[in-house]
Amino acid sequence: MSIITGNQNKAERPLMMGNEAIARGALEAGVKVVAAYPGTPSSEIPKTLGDVADEMGLYVEWSTNEKVSLEVAAAAAYSGLRALCTMKQVGVNVASDFLLHLAEYGSRTGLVLVTCEDPGSLSSTNEGDSRPYSKMMEFPLIEPGDIQEAKDMTRWAFELSETVRNVVMLRSVTRMSHASGNVTVGDLPETDVKADFQCNGEFFDQMTGPVMTLPSTAPAQRLRQHEGLAKAIACFEESPFNTYTGPDRPGLLIITSSAATFYCREAIAILGIEERVGLLKLGTTWPLPPRLIEKHLATADRVLIVEEGTPFLEDNLKALFADRIETVGPTRFHGRADKTIPSVDELNPDIVMAALAGLLNLPIDHSTADYRQRISAALEGNVPDRAMTFCPGCPHRASFWLLHEALKLDNRRGFISGDIGCYTLGVADCGFRAVKTVAAMGSGVGMASGFGKLRRFGLEQPVIAVCGDSTFFHAAMPGLVNAIHNQADMIMVILDNAGTAMTGFQPHPGIPVGADGKPLPALDIPTICQAMGARVEIADPFQFDAARKTIAELMDDGGGVRVLVLRQACALSPARKGKKEWTVSVDPDKCLGEACGCNRLCTRVFKCPGLIWDPKQKEMRIDEFVCVGCGVCAQVCPQNAIRVEKVVNS
Amino acid sequence: MNQANLKHDPYNLIITGVGGQGNVLASRMVGDMLSRLGFDITIGETFGASQRGGSVMSHLRISQKGSYSPQIPMGRAHMIVSLEPAETLRVLRAYGNRQVKVITNMRPVRSISVISGEQTYPAPETIMGWIRDFSESAWFLDTTETAVRLGNPIFGNVMLVGALARTGELPLDRDTFEAVVRSRMPASKVPVNMEAFDAGGAMIEDGRARITNPFYRDLMQACGQIG
To answer: What is written in the cofactor note of this entry (chain A) (predicted)?
Structure first.
């Protein structure tokens, strides 16, 4: 029995990852429909639920993009089923177009949007904060403060959504989603609900009328929305997820939320200031419960706000304070605004400790200073960096090698407009720095469409866009339509590695399988591009000669949009994992190291992690534990010094 | 549920290595074992954009009092278990202290800066010297070779779990490990995992691996902390 679906002994308290706890909370709430687009750190929530979809009678899908996923979830919530939609912070921007309409109309059944955010950009191209959407679009926001709450608050979020008749946003962060802790589970409900979309009722009847927001209906719908927010405030005033620990009249009051709660608790304990500092942990962060806040602000003259992301809570607390200054009395606020907390990057216990030590004039712990100083001096410059790179055997390394080579030979300073996925690393050494623009999903081809229209203004550089197969379906198709229709001069390269590799290999519409592992029809990318009107070629980035020829032809074919699908499965794909196609070795007679004139092309420039440059022996070797046997390095070596032998029965 | 006393509460354990070495699985196994014994466990993991070969680190907080931050404060690790020697140094530099203990696999995974010749990988003796200088005691293991004999270098992670158990630093026993393996893996995989666990333990037990820093050893003997 899995920990996710088990009705186990309550005393067992299984260890769950935050995302598993969120999945469990949704099951305890009786969720029926789950829709999502993968994005670190959110992907394990739908994955966990997809794995138990059959057992629990759920519909789980990996949607084309976040906007579509929210639309799918909303359809369920309008039909009487509790629905969950999950994404990372950048996805909320994609979904925001629909979200504004959803928030104005509201929901009929529990509809929860989970956004898992990435302060510090540990696995993102930005440090976005989605919480302002809850204020801007006026729906409730809640933030769990530990793994147990991640489970409990998810369950509660569905009830809250039905109380306020609107979507509820539950915000997690990397250190919540990817942290694990013990969770006391609740019961799983026996549910047997039938989906039924009632749409023949009165126009303004939220539960039975047509679902739409129109120019004339917006003010009335927003009033209805405000009634929901008032109900949320009433719930939040009494919510057990807002907790206070500390003295009745603390010298300093900390107000915090989310994973920052961990850091505050730890900093207070290590500094031993439990008697001096109060900790107000808010689980309900929009709208703020005014009476609760007023009560606590009145107890302290100084407040430190500790939160992940932008000063969202900080600004809202100050606005609330301005309204209540007469009852609360003079209060000094510390946080990101006065730089007590750094304005960027993720928090940790040390940052909170430093902030508290500064505000309370506490002595800094010097006991470890000597150790830190000595180890830093000893190791300075001696521990090799471990820059991010493509995995050994990654088809992207081969693809960028070929594209970089082609652009270099062409000699017109061509460049690649990149996109979001593993291949974003094309900006780095491992992609030979060929990628020169990176923005939102699909922006590679959209920008290339723009660059490709600048010929009349003198732009002579070849323009190449790259995107992955999942990104193609997510957001690149409209950009490609635009480029073809407007006759941009560009090559779009689709790096098809057969799955959403970066987030853990989730299927997408091009893969013949769904979130529950069952077969689904796959959409063929080259056929789609051909139908759109582009010249389409397909090549294998592991077959250098043929791929080179195709790229050269496409570069010569001036004008219009040309599409090249470089197709080769991800080195970590289930089909390939652990299977070597080639046994790779070095011919010591042919590899002359630095003497052969190639200037160590394989290890100095191609830099596959499966290669070893031995500076003592002055020769190249293969790291047999790291090499996955793709055979590409043999094609890179100009001396044919790398031998490949086909593995039999691989 | 019988709880042994922890040497420190919270006990701060870091398991580190590079992507693809099975570090995350090792930390889950240790977390599951201790959770079964009734301890409160919080695990913080750094992964996501850590492709194969990138640094991966798990922080385990083990307590009888409640849940702790998934990030250990700087300089406060009690034990570092590492699958890769350069990663041991990286973690030691941020989280080490005079009392920290270290178990490390000594087989390097070269980063691309080393492959390209921009940086050099320190010699094993140099790495061992630094680790001895900056820990209270250290065990140096070559798990990779033994793991390959068991059929796959990936078993190095399980061997390190076995080694950690045998140090007696934490209440980790063989039966609990077997229960965790049985709950996570198909029955056919249990024997090889047990073999790897035992092989890791043997590396600690036969004494070859342990090299205690003489400076700290003398210091602690003077304080009467060890016999």
So the answer is: Binds 2 [4Fe-4S] clusters. In this family the first cluster has a non-standard and varying [4Fe-4S] binding motif CX(2)CX(2)CX(4-5)CP.
**pLDDT tens digits, one per residue of B73-115:** 999 999 999 999 999 999 999 999 999 999 999 999 889 999 9
Q: If one looks up domain A395-567 in CATH, what number appears?
A: 3.40.50.970
pLDDT of residue A9: 64
Write out the binding residues of A for [4Fe-4S] cluster: 591, 598, 602, 608, 627, 630, 633, 637
| Contact between A378 and B111 using a beta-carbon 8 Å cutoff | no
Which residue intervals of chain B are DSSP H helices? Answer: 23-36, 85-95, 112-115, 124-133, 143-149, 156-167, 174-184, 190-205, 214-222
Neighbours of A460 (CB within 10 A): 9
Distance from CA of A262 to the nearest CA of B (A): 5
What average pLDDT does the structure give for chain A? 95
Banded pLDDT at A269 (limits 50, 70, 90): very high
Residue from A274, A383, A576, A607 whose CB has the most chain B CBs within 10 Å, to mutate: A383
Domain count, chain B: 1
Residue of A nearest to B24 (CA): A178
Lowest mean pLDDT among A138-142, A269-273, A503-507, A590-594: A590-594
pLDDT digits (tens, 9 = 90+) for A203-216: 899 999 999 999 99
Contacts of residue A190, Cβ cutoff 8 Å, sequence gap at least 6: none
Same fold, A15-237 and A395-567: yes
**Tell me, what's the pLDDT at A191?**
82
User: Does A371 sit within 8 Å of B98, measured CB to CB?
Assistant: yes
What does the pLDDT read at residue B223? 36
Which residues of A fall in the annotated binding site? 591, 598, 602, 608, 627, 630, 633, 637
Which residues in chain B are contacts of A13 at CB distance < 8 A? Answer: 35
Which DSSP symbol is given to A472? I
Alpha-carbon gap, residue A3 to A189, rounded angstroms: 16
CA B60 to chain centre: 11
Q: Under an 8 A CB cutoff, do A385 and B32 touch?
A: no
Per the CB < 8 A criterion, the answer to whether B92 and A375 are in contact is yes
Select the residue of B55, B96, B116 nearest A604 (Cβ to Cβ). Answer: B116
| Contacting residues of A for B48, CB less than 8 Å apart | 40-41, 122-123, 174, 178
Q: Do B48 and A182 touch (CB under 8 A)?
A: no
Q: Distance between CA A414 and CA A60 in Å, rounded?
A: 43
In a domain, B6, yes or no: no
| pLDDT tens by residue, B124-135 | 999 999 999 999
Q: Residue A608: list chain B partners with CB under 8 A.
A: 115
**C-alpha pair distances (Å), A449 with each of A143, A291, A484, A518, A525:** 40, 53, 8, 37, 19
- The pair phi, psi for residue B158, each rounded to 5°, is -65, -35
Strand A33-36: give its sheet, edge to edge: A59-62, A33-36, A83-88, A111-117, A168-173, A141-142, A284-286
| CB-closest option in A265, A348, A382 to B122 | A382
A364, exposed or middle or buried, with CB in 10 Å at 0-12, 13-18, 19+? exposed
Q: What is the mean pLDDT of chain B?
A: 87
> What are the tens digits of pLDDT across the range A467-477?
999 999 999 99
Determine contact: A386 vs chain B, CB below 8 A.
yes
Instruction: Provide, as residue numbers in chain A, all residues whose Cβ is less than 8 Å from the Cβ of B96.
Output: 371, 375
Judged by CB atoms closer than 8 Å, whether chains meet at A385 and B119 is answered as yes
Q: Kindly list the domain boundaries of chain A, sorted by start residue.
A: 15-237, 242-360, 395-567, 582-646
User: Taking the model in full, what pTM does it have?
Assistant: 0.95
Return the percentage of chain B with pLDDT > 90, whole number: 69
| Whether pLDDT at B217 is above 90 | no
Given an 8 Å threshold on Cβ–Cβ distance, is A385 in contact with B113?
yes
Q: Does residue B70 register a pLDDT over 80?
A: yes
Domain A15-237: homologous superfamily in CATH: Thiamin diphosphate (ThDP)-binding fold, Pyr/PP domains (3.40.50.970)
Q: What number is the ipTM of this complex? A: 0.94
